[in-house]
Amino acid sequence: MNKKVTGCIVTYNNIRTIGVAVSTLLKNTVCDFTLYAVDNGSTDGTVEFLRENFPQVKLIVSERNIGFGAGHNSIIDRLDSDYHVIINPDIVLRDDVISLMTDYLEEHDEIGMLSPKIEFPDGRPQILGKRIPKPYYLAASRLRGKEPGKLLREYAMLDEDMTMPRQIENATGCFMVIRTELFRKLGGFDSRYFMYFEDCDLTREVNKVSKVFYFPYATVYHEWGRESKKDMKLKIIQIQSMLKYYSKWGI
């Protein structure tokens, strides 16, 4: 099958990282791939930079910051693809992970969404939750030290065999590959979350009707500044999203 793949980056003042993200996506992806960028009202020149340097990217410009999930949802009606990739603006690809992941989905109809191995640019693994984000897991993640404790190890499944593809309860939204038809059927992300927890929510919605798998054979590199630990406004947004998540799903 000659599969068609789309991808989308939602950006807000990400001029520092988005050039590397877009260039490595376009350079390393050899399948039939169309990349969208939704700009949420950037004031740092991101829009002009993308127009000048990447005219092949389909750019949608919002006058205001409508949020991560709503930004991704804004292109659902435009998608003409078999698979869709949700991508952060601080992602770097070093090989053709998109073809690798969509090839795997072609062979496994029971899987609706894939999450790759995610590392820092220097190759260190990122410790990311793969189980349902219970409050004690989130506390362990927030209070992490140099070495992950018992709860964080459990949350990230660090003591499980993760060398083979396997189903997970929670996938990070920095890079996800989902069947386009399924993404459209679910209505995309729950736009009640402005930012944070929309990826946890989408994973649970997909797992209700299909399966979400961790796919260790593909690696993407993520800068991951953990800005909510530094910025009080983002911390408040994260707490608001957490409360919406628990209101919807229970603790």
Which key terms come to mind for this protein?
globular
Low-confidence stretches: none
- The CATH architecture of the domain at 4-118 and 165-224 can be given as Alpha-Beta Complex
CATH topology grouping of the domain at 4-118 and 165-224: Spore Coat Polysaccharide Biosynthesis Protein SpsA, Chain A
Return the average pLDDT rounded to an integer. Answer: 95
Query: Which structural class is indicated by helix and strand composition?
Result: alpha/beta
Helix amount, in percent?
Answer: 25-40%
How many β-strand stretches? 9
The largest sheet is: 9 strands, mixed
Range of strand content: 15-25%
Q: Work out the radius of gyration.
A: 17 Å
Distance between the termini: 42 Å
Kindly report the name of the CATH homologous superfamily of the domain at 4-118 and 165-224: Spore Coat Polysaccharide Biosynthesis Protein SpsA, Chain A
CATH class of the domain at 4-118 and 165-224: Alpha Beta
- Please provide the ordered H/E string of secondary-structure elements: EHEHEHEEHEHHEEHHEH
Categorize the overall geometry: globular
